[in-house]
Amino acid sequence: MTNIQVENLRKEFSGESGTITAVDDVSFTVEDGEFVCIVGPSGCGKTTLLRCIAGLETPTSGSIQLGGEEVANVPPQHRNLAFVFQDITLYPHMKVWQNISYPLKLSGHSKDERYEQAREVAETIQIGELLDKYPGDLSGGQQQRVAIGRSIIRSPRAYLLDEPMSDLDAKLKKEMRVELQQIQREVGGTMTYVTHDQEEAMTLSDRMLVMDDGEIQQYGSPHTVYHEPNNAFVAQFIGSPEINLLSATCPNGDARTVKVDESGWRIGTGIDEEVPEEVMVGFRPRHTTVHRDGSGELEGEISLVESVGDEGIVYVDSDVGELRSVVEIEDNPVREGETVGIDVERTYLFDREDGTLVTHDADLQSRSETRVTS
Fold first, then answer.
1. What DSSP designation does 239 have?
2. Which of 8, 114, 139, 172 is the most buried (most CB within 10 A)?
3. CATH superfamily, region 4-227
4. Domain 241-373 -> CATH class
5. Residues 138-156: pLDDT tens digits?
6. How far apart are CA 360 and CA 325, in angstroms?
């Protein structure tokens, strides 16, 4: 295996409306044996970036190195990278072992050699009993494992995966996440995985690279990206339910108290710093307490309660827009139409002009529970 180093990569496309920059001066490194997810909204450039690494797109400028070797202008067939596409491409007339071992057939291995290596790979990815079946006899998850097995058998320098689970149902996705992590540990491979699903990225990654508009917004561990977002975009994109984000003012640049614009509400932050006067204050739904007696820093009427097991996502209509809170509702359920107050227990302040993180509460310990008080 090997590391992947990308430096100042740029990819432009020419269209009827002019030049489109899909990847804009991107630099990052995937260490040997690391699992990195590239995540972002549709059209942010993540798949184009992966295709440039694979050699399926030629960069406009910049460097791509595999284990220190420059490959930006090396044809894809000579990079020895395994690419797993979004669409599962199995040969329906071939058995599972033949699909897995097809790269070996192209390189001239004998039938016995191909079968034996396919059997070993199939055992690694836990489909050893399926070797003599055809793709049409398999479930979606089993087909995906066959596609991954076909990439493993080549002993590539690294694995590139482009939204390979996007067509699977939610239950199967969760199962495949666990299995993919186990496969990665078994083969010890360097994996770069593209997804638009932030939950998938948070679950799978050693580190995650968040992109928007062709640029890297943040690169770090899931814990760091979630708890210390670089900017308002990252804070909004990573985390479910989405972070609450309100225009606010810090009088005289004092961050200890922020005034939520047009409401008169004041939120105590516990941040003793000087900051710009015009900010956006962010707080995650899990970092709140809902008061049924109407007390609290913010207030409004519950418009919707989404029940998710013991928890509920509470949507509150307020005079500055919709607020979201996650609460435990089994013992103290809240109802639509109730007027409630909300206290904020951890805050982020972003520059209102460019969205960059200005500061946040120092206490980043995860809350063990969220509460509803009567």
1. S
2. 114
3. P-loop containing nucleotide triphosphate hydrolases (3.40.50.300)
4. mainly beta
5. 887 788 888 888 888 877 8
6. 19
